[in-house]
Design goal:
heterodimer, A: 244 residues, alpha/beta, Rossmann fold, four-stranded antiparallel beta sheet, 8 helices, 10 strands, 26% strand, globular, B: 368 residues, Transcription Regulator spoIIAA, 3 domains, four-stranded mixed beta sheet, 4 strands, elongated
Chain lengths: 244, 368
């Protein structure tokens, strides 16, 4: 089943055309990568998918809903069905980690406080944080922990879809590999569909099932890792030159 | 989704909890209350039946694990995915039980910590003053060290642009004090004494304080916000690594600019407040401006004017250093800027008033 369908998307910033006729689709249960050179609009596409940014023309369908003309109610429902991890975590700095994770549960459900605490502890455990970390503020923890906590927050409502914006950037190689491991685990444990924007070659080889390489405003390649090197494209040839 | 997620079936030899439909955190509370109202006991045999379930999320799985442990129930489920989710939650429970030592603060620890933290912040302010002092010494080692351009920029930013607001506020304060006094003086027929009263109160106390308050609110807070934002974006770290000492580039120019400009602002304030007084005296006490000015030079000694101006550099130092210190205390989160800006204004106003009180006592004892 296709959870995300992107068709003919065009994005324009002032004079600059970022995407023109961009097509791709993400199947259920896969880890899908958005790759490409700097400034090709990977993060922009991700922002368009989660309705943070509007696009000029074309269509994006997520979980069966076309987001270019979605009603506010549907949009709100959609927002509870996905989780987003931003590049620097974007945890709310006035709240502790536990409060960050509990926020959506408190707002959107009628759960009792004890149940919420239990869910929070479970999510923290799921991403590999300690129970005592729950009482720390985002300014008191390291970048890697912030990303883990960001994932725990994204998972709070048990989403079907997870968007990760450069999850391993700014992490040391060991933490980055641990993070890859975590992403794979989460997929198998919770049956998530995950869309990742990444530059990290190790992550690409470790985690991705399929990917789209965006170059020159279009998708230069969509498919699995095995066939990628056969594509004649400068970026792809340079990027995948050294096999790991 | 509005269908009941749970049906409780009481049988002869036990109870069967028949779950059905999509089990998510949205209908968890419903199921929970249903189980709580039907009091179950451990003696009965309890079966959790998940055969009719289409979807199970982790929140509900946690809940099911809870009931299973509480009542020692048996789970009937054919779906592999659900069993997998349940196993995951059970594993987590086990891990949680082993390291369940969450520390809670009590009141004494809280008081102790608060006290110790304020002690530490006092120490760090003293350290900050020390650094300012050593940077000052460096400044005077060579004329070249003085950042004339930065100082001029700050003079314009934080003082010249404040002329308007200082002038307007002072004018209004002069107007108001004179007007209130005029009413009282008229009843005693002491119209002419408005000059003595205005001269001493404005020159000695009101003008310096009004100026300091306006500048603390306007420029002191701006210092905190500017430097705080620079700290969050790591600009200050970048300066340090490039060998630009933030104290010579950011801190001292601001302090020096205010020290130079505050007496001038106080002078503006003096003039404007006096202008307000003259207007009121003319309109409601029939005291012509020339009479007012004659009387002023006769009865109000020049020392009162100087006393007001002398306070300027001291107030300036307090406002600028507290503003900058608070800016440097900003931590890497968004709340911190607001918190420190508020603190900077409150603390600098308090410091200015304390300083004014000290001056008042000192000058009186010295007979000035």
């Amino acid at each position: 089943m296709e959870l995300i369908k992107v068709k003919d998307v065009k994005t324009v910033f002032g004079e600059k055309v970022v995407h023109d006729g961009l097509d791709l689709h993400v199947d259920e249960g896969e880890i899908y990568g958005l790759l490409g050179p700097s400034g090709c609009g990977k993060t922009t596409l991700l922002r368009e998918m989660v309705m943070l940014q509007e696009f000029e023309a074309g269509s994006i369908e997520i979980l069966g809903k076309k987001i270019e003309n979605i009603s506010e109610e549907d949009a709100q429902e959609l927002r509870r069905k996905w989780g987003v991890l931003f590049q620097f975590g974007a945890l709310f700095s006035s709240l502790t980690l536990a409060e960050n994770i509990a926020l959506a549960l408190r707002e959107y459900s009628t759960l009792s406080e004890a149940m919420i605490q239990e869910i929070v502890a479970f999510k923290l455990d799921l991403v590999g944080l300690k129970p005592s970390d729950a009482f720390l503020y985002p300014s008191e923890i390291s970048g890697g922990m912030r990303k883990k906590a960001g994932i725990a927050r994204a998972l709070a409502m048990d989403p079907k879809l997870l968007f990760l914006d450069e999850p391993t950037s700014g992490l040391d190689p060991i933490s980055a590999r641990e993070f890859d491991e975590l992403i794979l685990q989460l997929r198998s444990m919770l049956g998530l569909t995950i869309v990742i924007v990444t530059h990290d070659l190790h992550s690409i080889y470790n985690t991705l099932d399929r990917m789209a390489i965006i170059d020159n405003k279009k998708v230069a390649y969509e498919g699995s890792l095995e066939e990628v090197t056969s594509v004649k494209n400068d970026f792809i040839q340079t990027f995948f030159r050294d096999k790991i | 989704m509005n269908k009941k997620p749970l049906h409780i079936d009481f049988q002869k030899d036990g109870v069967s909890l028949d779950f059905s439909g999509e089990l998510t955190l949205y209908n968890l509370t419903q199921a929970q209350s249903l189980i709580e109202t039907n009091t179950l006991s451990n003696t009965q045999k309890i079966i959790i039946n998940l055969e009719q379930v289409q979807y199970l999320d982790t929140a509900f799985a946690l809940f099911l694990t809870d009931i299973q442990e509480k009542y020692n129930a048996e789970i009937q489920c054919g779906n592999k995915n659900f069993l997998h989710t349940l196993a995951l939650t059970k594993e987590h429970k086990k891990r949680l039980d082993t390291n369940d030592n969450i520390h809670k603060k009590n009141i004494i620890e809280y008081i102790g910590k608060t006290f110790y933290e304020s002690y530490l912040s006092f120490i760090s302010f003293v350290e900050f003053l020390g650094k300012i002092f050593t940077s000052f010494l460096l400044y005077f080692k060579s004329i070249k060290n003085i950042r004339i351009k930065e100082i001029a920029f700050e003079i314009n930013e934080s003082a010249v642009r404040a002329f308007g607001i200082v002038a307007l506020t002072s004018f209004l304060i002069g107007l108001v004090t004179a007007y209130q006094a005029a009413y009282q003086l008229q009843r005693y027929g002491g119209n002419i004494f408005i000059v003595d009263m205005m001269g001493i109160s404005i020159f000695r106390e009101l003008a310096p304080l009004i100026t300091a308050i306006v500048i603390a609110g306007r420029s002191g807070s701006a210092y905190t916000a500017q430097i705080g934002a620079m700290k969050i974006t790591q600009e200050i770290d970048a300066m340090r690594t490039m060998g630009f000492d933030p104290y010579t580039f950011l801190v001292l120019p601001r302090i020096i600019a205010l020290i130079i400009m505050l007496p001038i602002l106080i002078f503006v304030s003096d003039m404007m407040a006096m202008l307000g007084g003259i207007i009121v005296a003319d309109l409601s006490l029939d005291l012509t401006p020339s009479l007012f000015l004659d009387r002023l030079s006769e009865v109000v000694a020049i020392k009162h004017f100087y006393v007001g101006l002398i306070k300027g550099p001291f107030f300036a130092f307090l406002i600028a250093s507290i503003g900058i210190y608070r800016g440097l205390m900003v931590k890497d989160d968004t709340q911190s800027i607001g918190f420190n800006t508020t603190k900077s204004v409150v603390e600098s106003l308090f410091a200015v008033i304390v300083c004014d009180a000290i001056f008042s006592i000192a000058f009186t004892n010295l007979g000035i």
